[in-house]
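## Example pair
The file below holds two records. Each record gives the amino-acid sequence first, followed by its structure token line.
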Amino acid sequence: MNVVRQRYPVVLFSMVVFCGGSAESKAEFVYDFESLTVNQSIIGQDGWEKLNEIFNIANVTYGTGVNTSKVAKGAYSKPAAAITRRPFDEPLFYTSVDTDIHWRLRARNGNGFPVNSAWGGGGRARFGLEGGATDTATYLDSPGFAGKGDLINGSHWHEFELVVDFSVLGGEATLFHRDLTAGIPTFTMDGTIQNKSLGLTPDGTGRYEIPYVFLRLDGGGEIDNVFMQVAVPEPSACALFGIAAMIIAATQYRRRKTVQSAV
């Protein structure tokens, strides 16, 4: 299971000194399918579950073109689609302080999404390439917004990044993308999918719980390198005050030492 959880160290010592506490550490979720067995269904491997029993299946195979690592791939021809999910080892949580959250995936004729409610409910935020007989545009599907964006080459490998601001009720997102097959090194902001409401539902405490990662694989679609981030909160005003106070104290100390040396 290729899941990486990174714990970030607290580097703002002044926050401990002046505020009596430290910033909460956060985690990242990275999934690349490398631990799974090729030429077999993804279902039943490493916790992946099938959600649509009548449409399609997803297999583990090697990617094509510029991405030849292991990928999840829809097995049948379009418009059939495989929809699968995998629970996180620990659910991810977001709050209104999370204003710069990055979710990424690589896709060729496919899309994926995190969800904070049951499949079919009001908690999905699927992004990537549009679903259907052909994939020629970027796509976002959520309770708050559903629609297409920039025209792109769906047969190419693309990397998609959804940047989410949870200070807006329900979450607000902007999509970025880059064409990996064409060797594009930088992301482009989507011309349509900007500041769109995800319409996600917070719990009674205002938190957004994300228990699963979902994938939708249209026939022949491939997905790889799923990444979900929980950002470390920005330093509070209290912490910034503490940093400033330490700088001022250090400056005054150096000045006193200079005066004493001159005497």
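Second record, same layout:
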Amino acid sequence: MIKSEPMIKLTKSKSLRSNHYSFLRVTFLWILISLSALSLNAANKDFEGEISYKITYEDGLGKQVMDVLPIYSTLLIKNYKFYSYTNGPLGNQGLIYYHQKKVSYSLVDLFTTALAIKKVKADMKKDRELYKTQNIQFTEETKTILGYTCRKVIVTVYIPRLKRYVDLVAFYTRDLGNTEWINETDPIYYEIRGTLLEYDIQMGSVFMTFKATSVKHLKMSESDFKIPNTHRVVSPKEAEAILKNK
């Protein structure tokens, strides 16, 4: 049985908070977007278990930035429920999604603030409107990742923070079962009908790539997909106001 790792409380100094909080406030939503892609790109009713990902970043970010960014992500799946999370020096960020209810909870743990940001179908539609997808190119190029045949797709999308279009590359597979619906909450990759085992994310000015390093069929516990009682459930609007005042 895989147990969800506990949320890590931040105990960094005020100096660290001063140096990095502005960066985190801008980027934590991008991390949640990547988790959305991660959790909703790998599930189906037949698969139960854990998928691990390694996160890599473009060169030239500098040591201070790299020191606060996560490098691993984990995804737990069971019966149309998902829990994905990243572990980083400044705490854990996670996403719990209940597909049948069409509701997700983004788990944010920044310093002394622990929130579960609830999103319903209408909120997911608003997330899509933040981006302008110029083109989605499904290519014939394939490669094998962890024994699964993956097809390459290139998504050209407008990134508001950069004020320009960028090309994001993903490799997806249909070998894990029926995955026609599983990208529905991801604002960039929602039109891809398959499991993403490798994909790019433009996190503000930071370019990152998620690549699956293992796929394990394991028996999961229902408790792995419950919202921690340490987290306050809020709407996206309430979360924005709370974090703005931090």
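Notes on the second record: The chain has a mean pLDDT of 81. The radius of gyration is 17 Å.
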